[in-house]
Amino acid sequence: xxxxxxxxxxxxxxxxxxxxxxxxxxxxxxxxxxxxxxxxxxxxxxxxxxxxxxxxxxxxxxxxxxxxxxxxxxxxxxxxxxxxxxxxxxxxxxxxxxxxxxxxxxxxxxxxxxxxxxxxxxxxxxxxxxxxxxxxxxxxxxxxxxxxxxxxxxxxxxxxxxxxxxxxxxxxxxxxxxxxxxxxxxxxxxxxxxxxxxxxxxxxxxxxxxxxxxxxxxxxxxxxxxxxxxxxxxxxxxxxxxxxxxxxxxxxxxxxxxxxxxxxxxxxxxxxxxxxxxxxxxxxxxxxxxxxxxxxxxxxxxxxxxxxxxxxxxxxxxxxxxxxxxxxxxxxxxxxxxxxxxxxxxxxxxxxxxxxxxxxxxxxxxxxxxxxxxxxxxxxxxxxxxxxxxxxxxxxxxxxxxxxxxxxxxxxxxxxxxxxxxxxxxxxxxxxxxxxxxxxxxxxxxxxxxxxxxxxxxxxxxxxxxxxxxxxxxxxxxxxxxxxxxxxxxxxxxxxxxxxxxxxxxxxxxxxxxxxxxxxxxxxxxxxxxxxxxxxxxxxxxxxxxxxxxxxxxxxxxxxxxxx
Length: 564
Prior knowledge:
four-stranded antiparallel beta sheet, 20 helices, globular, alpha+beta, 4 domains, single chain
C-alpha cells in the first residue's frame, strides 16, 4: 500500500506522456484523476495506521550508492510528520487535476500537461517520504524540473520561455545553499540518513547545527519564492506556473518542519550540556553521566524522550517496570518485540542487524519447524551470539543452494556449502551438505522462543505464538525442507516435537489454513517414537494452492507434481 502511494502518480504520468494519444483526452482525465484519488484515499489509511495506531512504516527498496563511508539506499519512511504532509499535498494535487479538466479543456496538448502535473505530484511524494537527504534532494530537483516544464508549457511564447529560465536560474541559487548544507551534514554526521542525523543532532556543536539550518532555510526560500529570492514568481504566471505555487510552498514547509523540528531538539534537553563539547563538532560524552538509549526496531529511531537519565524515567515512558528495564539493558534481547535498550549509542549498521524482512522471517519459521537449528553460545556476552544452521541430504542439494544463495542470501555468509564426508579428504561422494547464516541478534531472540532447557540440555520446543508466526510461505518451506510425498498425500516430519506439540500443529493447519490432517506414529530403528503429520487427500488441492507459489520447480515432487 505504501509503495502504491508513491508510484501511482508516476504510473499516471508515464501512461499519459507516452500513451496519451492512444488513451485519448478523456482517458487521460480518468487515468490521472483515478490514480490521484486512489493515492489520496491510501494516504488517509496511512494516516490512520501511522498516527492513530502508532505504527510508523519504513520501506527499503534497494541500495543506491555505496562508496566507502557513503551508503545511500532507495528507502522511504512514513512517520507522523510524513503522513500529515501527504494529505494536504495530495488533496491540493487532486483539486488541481480536477480544476485542470475545465481550465485546459480547449488546449491541444492536454495529455502532456497532465503528464507534467502527475509527475510533479509523484516527485513531491518522493520529497516528502524519502528516508534520507539524497532521496529527498532527488524529489526536490525533480520538482524544480517539473516547475520549469509547467512554466515553459506554452513554449512558443517568448515570455514563457524567459519566465521558465528565470525560475530555473533563481532556483539554482537555492540549490547551491541546499547542496552545501548536505555536504556539511555528511561531513559532520558521516551519513545522510535521517535516523542517524536526527538521533545525533542533540550532541553536535550548536554552531554547526545553526549553520546547517541556515543553509537549508536558504535552499527552501528560493524554491518557495520567499522575499529576496521571489523574483521568478511573478513571471511564472506567464505559463502554467500558477498551478505549482501551492506545491512549492508545501515543499518549503515540509523541509522546514522536518529538519528544524529535529535540529531544535538540541535546546529541548538541557542535560545534554553536561556532555556536548562546545569547542568543536565532535561528540564527547560526560563519563560521569549514564544514559539509557532506547531504539524502536521498526524505524531505528530513538523513542520519544530518549535517552533517559535513569531506569525509573525509562520505565515510566515505556510503561514497563524498572526491573524489566534492568533485565533488557545491554542484554542482547528485544524488549516487548519492539525496543532495544542500550547504555551506549548504537549506529544504524548495528541496529539493522536486529531486523529481518517478513519474507525472510517466514522462511526461517518454516525451516525451524523442520530440521533448522539455532546454534547459541550461552557463555557469550555479545549481542550477536546465535546463528541458524542447516543440514541437507545430497538429494536436496539444489534446495540447499536455493536457500543459501537466493532465499536467505542476505543473512548468510559468503562461504560455500560444506560437504560431508569431504570428497577432497576421503575420496567419497558427499551424502550431506551443511551451511549456516551469519551470527545475528535476531537468532538470540528466536532461540529464547524455540528452545527450552530440559535436564541441562537445550531442547527445541514449539513457540506459543506459532499460529501467528506460520504463513503459507513458511508452510511451503517446511514441506520443501522436511516433507515428502507418499501414497497420494504429503507427510511432514515433526520428529523434533512432542505429541502435544504435533497435535497443536495439526489444529493450526485446520483452523488457519483449512487443511485436514492426521497424526502418524513412527518407530525409529533405535526404538524411539516420533510423530508426523499426514495431510488428508481431501485437502491436497487446497494445500497445493496455498504453497505452490513459493515452491521451486526442483521440489515439486514433494507435492506429487512432476517438474515441467
